[in-house]
Write a structure and sequence with these properties.
170 residues, Four Helix Bundle (Hemerythrin (Met), subunit A)
């Protein structure tokens, strides 16, 4: 489960570049979680926050599912971890929640995202909409948003990891 990280080629075409940076940030989150126990991965950053590395991975599984299943292709797969009663359920971890399950679920959502995106051009519009607007999104917009989402949360992950065992990195 050791993630391989590589930046996209500096002369890649736009789609390859966007997909490369998205994969780079996916791999960065996996790297931030590498080598930790389930207990460490469930460790919250600092009170009163419930933000943890495992929670971030579960959150990103939900985000991948939302943008590439619900918004892009117009499917309604339903949430994985949250509910109407618990809108932040992906962050509410128990002793029963494991890295193995969270990682497998996240990877399955990444694979579904890749399959769904493969059927679209960068300028093609989504069949669904987000909870924020009824307007469709281009695949280019979704890729850019996902890169931003991962980059922001990777900053959180870096701070959480440093708190857990002092490990830092880019």
């Amino acid at each position: 489960m050791t993630p391989e990280r590589s930046e996209p080629a500096q002369n890649a075409d736009e789609r390859t570049m966007l997909e490369g940076w998205l994969d780079y940030h996916r791999q960065t989150l996996a790297w931030k979680c590498q080598g930790l126990t389930d207990d460490q991965l469930r460790t919250a950053s600092v009170q009163p926050s419930e933000l943890s590395l495992m929670g971030l991975v579960r959150h990103m599984a939900e985000v991948e599912r939302s943008w590439f299943r619900k918004v892009l292709v117009g499917a309604d797969p339903g949430p994985i971890y949250y509910s109407d009663e618990d809108r932040d359920g992906e962050f509410h971890l128990t002793e029963a929640d494991t890295w193995q399950e969270a990682y497998a679920t996240w990877q399955a959502e990444i694979e579904a995202a890749r399959r769904n995106a493969a059927g679209y051009g960068l300028d093609d519009l989504s069949k669904g909409a987000s909870r924020f607007t009824d307007e469709p999104f281009s695949l280019r917009w979704i890729y850019t948003h996902m890169i931003e989402e991962y980059a922001r949360h990777n900053g959180h992950a870096d701070l959480i990891r440093e708190r857990i065992d002092g490990v830092t990195g880019d």
